[in-house]
Write a structure and sequence with these properties.
This protein has 70 residues and is of the alpha+beta class. It contains 2 helices and 3 strands.
């Protein structure tokens, strides 16, 4: 992202080739994530980094993102 003014320190964005599929699967597993907006709609997965996050949750989210990484 080139426009530094719209960055967030509390969100990580991932660019898997099948981002929409990853968002759907994560939602079915109970994780609240979001897809991209604007020109990134359907292209990225946004994951919030706030709150209590257990190592097992990180591993589960990473496994799904890796599954759709192509």
């Amino acid at each position: 992202m080139r426009d530094q003014s719209v960055r967030s320190n509390t969100v990580a964005a991932f660019l898997p080739p099948k981002a929409s599929d990853a968002v759907r699967e994560l939602a079915t597993r109970g994780y609240v994530v979001a897809g991209g907006m604007g020109e990134l709609k359907g292209k990225v997965v946004r994951v919030g980094l706030m709150g209590e996050i257990e190592p097992g949750d990180l591993e589960a989210v990473a496994a799904v993102l890796n599954k759709y990484a192509g």
